[in-house]
């Protein structure tokens, strides 16, 4: 046990914090030793601080129940007990930026699920199978922060996970124009049907900020490091609509694509099924064996059948068809709180450890 890296969870009582704790139970590399949350939870045992608000399908891990929750604002104290932290704090963007950089300046790496730093030019925003090389921008960020091992790294928005990996797999065919509509689960808002009953039998055609993220974040992931910052790609245009639907977990995307080169359907399917990246090469603990799969059935992927593919870390694709206006269209599905949130961040941390950015203090 002593060989494992000591992990702190910032914002550990919320839904994403709970998902982190659930995913890290029995992790081979990481051990949750510290949980921090708002001042109102500080000083309580974790089990008492969460109370009846535990939202995971699996029981709360025994190992965390009696951890005394710390005040997330007591940065030095929390940082002194851990090798790195995952951040899932619920604050304003400016507060999140400030507190994550404060932790980084204590020489504590921060792997964040939050959106606050996604457009900070020297902060890597990474899907480990797509742009692991972006972690190299950390060296420039450390110079700005004046740190030797402290930094902030983030994962992208949950809504892009069901289509950006697919478009990446098709890069050789040069997609240049994309229309996407995402059908997003309520857990993306940190809710269950118990605390959001008005979502039952309902659709809400607006999710604040999602459409901008859906259109812009893939471009940053496909960008390049130039002069110490990440410059987004500009060779693809994406337009989107994001809709909240009465599903607990799982974001579905309906996508239309134009290509500069004309692939066949079989070429598109083969590119999906054969796509892999550094996490698969390194056999990282949370990496799916097959990141993206194609499903031949006309009625797949389905949330109820397919959202937990590869323990929620894989992407399922179906219904690749020629389109009368665009070239091809497809449907994608990903688990928004596993691959799209905490699980994606855990895989980022595993990559950072493998790359030597996260080590024991």
TrEMBL record:
Originating organism: Pseudobutyrivibrio ruminis
Q: Which N-terminal residues, if any, form the signal peptide?
A: none
Q: Which family does it belong to?
A: Belongs to the aspartate-semialdehyde dehydrogenase family.
- Which residue ranges run through the membrane? none
What are the positions of the active site?
158, 251
Gene3D superfamilies, sorted = Dihydrodipicolinate Reductase, domain 2, NAD(P)-binding Rossmann-like Domain
Q: Which InterPro entries match?
A: ASADH-related (IPR051823), Asp_semi-ald_DH_pep-lack (IPR005676), NAD(P)-bd_dom_sf (IPR036291), Semialdehyde_DH_NAD-bd (IPR000534), Semialdhyde_DH_dimer_dom (IPR012280)
Task: Report what the protein is called.
Answer: Aspartate-semialdehyde dehydrogenase
Task: Name the domain of life.
Answer: Bacteria
Residues forming the Semialdehyde dehydrogenase NAD-binding domain are 6-138
Chain's gene name: asd
Q: Which NCBIfam families match?
A: asd_EA, PRK08664.1
Q: Name one GO molecular function term.
A: protein dimerization activity
């Amino acid at each position: 046990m002593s060989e494992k890296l000591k992990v702190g969870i910032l914002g550990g009582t919320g839904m994403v914090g709970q998902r982190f704790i659930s995913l890290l139970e029995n992790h081979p590399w990481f051990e949750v030793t510290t949980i921090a949350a708002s001042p109102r939870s500080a000083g309580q045992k974790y089990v008492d601080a969460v109370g009846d608000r535990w939202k995971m399908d699996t029981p709360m891990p025994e190992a965390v129940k009696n951890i005394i929750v710390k005040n997330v604002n007591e940065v030095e104290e929390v940082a002194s007990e851990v090798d790195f932290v995952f951040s899932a704090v619920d604050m304003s963007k400016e507060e999140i930026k400030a507190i994550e950089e404060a932790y980084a300046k204590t020489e504590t790496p921060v792997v964040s699920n939050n959106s606050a730093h996604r457009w900070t030019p020297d902060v890597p925003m990474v899907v480990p199978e797509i742009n692991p090389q972006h972690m190299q921008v950390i060296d420039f960020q450390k110079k700005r922060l004046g740190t030797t091992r402290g930094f902030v790294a983030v994962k992208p928005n949950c809504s892009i996970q069901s289509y950006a990996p697919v478009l990446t797999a098709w890069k050789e065919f040069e997609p240049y124009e994309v229309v996407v509509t995402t059908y997003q689960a309520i857990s993306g808002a940190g809710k269950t049907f118990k605390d959001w009953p008005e979502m039952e039998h309902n659709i809400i055609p607006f999710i604040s900020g999602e459409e901008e993220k859906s259109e812009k974040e893939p471009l940053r992931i496909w960008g390049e490091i130039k002069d110490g910052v990440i410059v987004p790609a500009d060779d693809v245009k994406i337009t989107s609509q994001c809709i909240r639907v009465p599903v607990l977990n799982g974001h579905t995307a309906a996508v239309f694509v134009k290509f500069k080169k004309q692939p066949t359907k079989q070429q598109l399917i083969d590119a999906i099924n054969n796509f892999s990246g550094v996490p698969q090469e390194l056999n990282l603990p949370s990496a799916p064996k097959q990141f993206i799969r194609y499903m031949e059935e006309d009625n797949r992927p389905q949330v109820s059948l397919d959202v937990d593919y590869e323990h929620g870390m894989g992407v399922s694709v179906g219904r690749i068809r020629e389109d009368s206006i665009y070239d091809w269209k497809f449907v994608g599905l990903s688990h928004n709180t596993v691959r799209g949130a905490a699980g994606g961040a855990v895989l980022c941390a595993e990559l950072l450890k493998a790359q030597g950015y996260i080590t024991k203090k």
